[in-house]
Specification:
75% of the residues lie in helices and 0% in strands. It has 83 residues and is an all-alpha fold. It is flat, with a radius of gyration of 22 Å.
Length: 83
């Protein structure tokens, strides 16, 4: 990862530590289930969408340089048989 990513991660961790230290008792009630579900779905999509995009780009790149379908390329690359 580049320098900017490490700086961003350090900033986020610092902010989370400050929030954890100074927010005691700020929210005495638990969050409603709709809010919890919303954050869960949002975080899942935030991770899932880029993962699928990178996977699709990787498959397109590999298959464009070969005449094999991706599943056969994967099989021939990582199989342990001698054929």
């Amino acid at each position: 990862m580049g320098q900017h990513v490490w700086l961003l991660l350090a900033t986020i961790v610092t902010e989370l530590l400050v929030i954890a230290k100074w927010s005691k008792g700020q929210f005495p009630e638990p969050f409603p289930s709709a809010v919890k579900w919303g954050w869960t779905i949002g975080a899942t999509l935030l991770v899932l969408y880029p993962t699928l995009q990178v996977n699709y780009a990787f498959r397109s790149l590999i298959c464009s340089y070969t005449s094999l379908p991706f599943y056969r390329l994967f099989y021939y690359t990582f199989s342990l048989h001698d054929g």
